[in-house]
Every structure is written in structure tokens, then in C-alpha cells.
Amino acid sequence: MSSGEPDYPGSDDIPDRIVENDSRLEHFADANDRWEEVPERLAEDWDSMAKLIAYYESMWRDDVRDFPEAPFGVLSEDGVWNEMGRFYESVKEIALTADRIVREYEADNDPEVDPGTTPTDEETSDGIAPGTDAAIIDEP
Known about the structure:
The radius of gyration is 27 Å and the shape is elongated. The chain contains 4 helices and no strands. The protein is mainly α.
């Protein structure tokens, strides 16, 4: 990726759209590095939340009763409940947003919607594009 600095012949004639989109590409190279970590981090956070839920649904009431003056946020009913709810709502919002983005991306790259695109090898089964019939050509 370039820095956008004019350092080659004709660089003064580069349209702004190239510079702007080069900047977008650089942004998404960095963004993709961050996004690649999200599934693992989300799974780790869910494991931790599941343990908190298990505690909240088991020994939590006993601890609140036995240690009423202990200065721990986990002994606050609203604190635990609110964070469980925030996590749940955030995950739902992430799922909805991710689903929308996947649908939009796939619609933009679907050969039936955009005939200019060609299925990749992963999108084909046995080398036959989805929606096409296999034909055996009997050459003489």
C-alpha cells in the first residue's frame, strides 16, 4: 500500500478517488486485524459470563446474606443483572449487524444478482457451479 505521496512520474494526475480508496484499503487492513480477534474474545467473554451466571444462580444469594457489608460489586443484585443483560443485548446486536452485513455482502457478490461475478472453487461442488447442470461432452 502506498503512502499517497507523489514519488513517481505522473503522480500529480492521480484522481482523488484513488487516494481516498487507498486510505480505505489501509483502514480495512487494520480493521480486519482487529476483527479477526473478535470471535475468540467473544467466546472467552461468554465463558466468563457463563461462570458468573452459574454463580448468580447458585451461591450468590447465600453470599449476599452472609456478607451483607462486603464491598464487592458482584454482591449487588442490580450490578450482576445489568451486566448480564448488557452482554446479552450486545451479543444480539452484534449478531444482527453481522447477519445484515453478510446478507448485503453476499447479495453484492451473488452471480444471480450480479452476473459479472463468478463462483469461487469453494462455492462450487465438484467443479460445477450451483444452479447449473452438469453436462458430459462426448467429443469425437
